[in-house]
């Protein structure tokens, strides 16, 4: 049994191939992992029921929980006749996998077409899965919202204020920052007021694991370790 983990999750796709990505998450003392529908070996469409049970067993063996699934399909694919069916199939497969993993949230970009919105929401509701729309600047009014501090900071806006405005519509929250050059990276060296951001999540009653989004970081494993320490130092457990 490992030491009590930090209440954070991490995007596994940046940590390497499966199963080493699970091992890296444990070494970082993560409580959970964020799946990616495009990660080789873990794509929902490639996982039959036996493979999905193997994934669940891997999570249990590493004492990790599934925090959610990323299915960030470019929005233009929902507008092209030769791509929309495949895009919807991939999204629905992610929703089904999310149900299997314990009805974890699916993070994605909601298309603007009203019929597609209704169809996607109906499938998510049928399976009891929450959706987190990451479209900026305004997410879909008919589902939950995901918040990405780096994207908000690039718009010259305040992530903590956006959390307060969203309230219980907030379904997914990323932990990241941007430096003075506008590059994504870990918290602590950029523009994000990390303490205000974490306090805002606590105050709004956010009930899911915040996700360290290290997908585009230069050194994802090393910088994620720094991010974990800085996040944990913001509000020591005894002060929560």
Strand order across the largest sheet = 1-2-3-4-5-6-7-10
Order of helices and strands: EHEHEHEHEEHHEEEHEH
> pLDDT average, as an integer?
95
Q: Which blocks of ≥5 consecutive residues have pLDDT under 50?
A: none
Briefly note the structural class of the backbone: alpha/beta
**CATH topology-level name:** TIM Barrel
CATH architecture: Alpha-Beta Barrel
Spatial separation of the terminal alpha carbons: 25 Å
- The number of helices is 8
Strand content: 15-25%
Please supply descriptive tags for the structure shown above.
about 240 residues; 8 helices; alpha/beta; TIM Barrel
Could you characterize what this model shows?
By secondary structure, this protein is of the alpha/beta class. Helix content is 38%, strand content 18%. It contains 8 helices and 10 strands. The strands form 2 sheets. It has an 8-stranded parallel barrel with strand order 1-2-3-4-5-6-7-10, surrounded by 4 helices. A two-stranded antiparallel ribbon has the order 8-9. The chain is globular. The protein starts with 5 loop residues before the first strand and ends in a 6-residue tail after the last helix.
């Amino acid at each position: 049994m490992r030491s009590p983990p930090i209440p954070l999750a991490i995007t596994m796709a940046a940590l390497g191939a499966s199963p080493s990505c699970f091992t890296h998450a444990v070494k970082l003392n993560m409580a959970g992992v964020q799946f990616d529908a495009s990660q080789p070996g873990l794509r929902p469409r490639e996982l039959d029921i036996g493979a999905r049970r193997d994934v669940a067993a891997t999570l249990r063996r590493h004492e990790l929980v599934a925090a959610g699934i990323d299915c960030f399909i470019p929005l233009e694919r929902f507008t092209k006749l030769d791509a929309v069916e495949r895009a919807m199939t991939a999204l629905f497969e992610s929703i089904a996998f999310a149900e299997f993993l314990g009805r974890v949230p699916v993070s994605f970009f909601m298309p603007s077409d009203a019929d597609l919105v209704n169809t996607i929401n109906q499938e998510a509701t049928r399976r009891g899965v929450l959706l987190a729309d990451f479209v900026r600047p305004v997410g879909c009014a008919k589902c939950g919202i995901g918040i990405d501090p780096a994207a908000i900071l690039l718009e010259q806006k305040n992530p903590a204020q956006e959390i307060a405005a969203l309230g219980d519509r907030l379904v997914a929250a990323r932990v990241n920052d941007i430096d003075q050059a506008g590059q994504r990276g870990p918290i602590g060296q950029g523009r994000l007021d990390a303490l205000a951001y974490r306090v805002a999540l606590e105050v709004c009653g956010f009930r899911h694991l915040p996700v360290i989004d290290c997908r585009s970081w230069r050194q994802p494993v090393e910088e994620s370790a720094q991010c974990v320490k800085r996040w944990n130092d913001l509000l020591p457990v005894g002060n929560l």
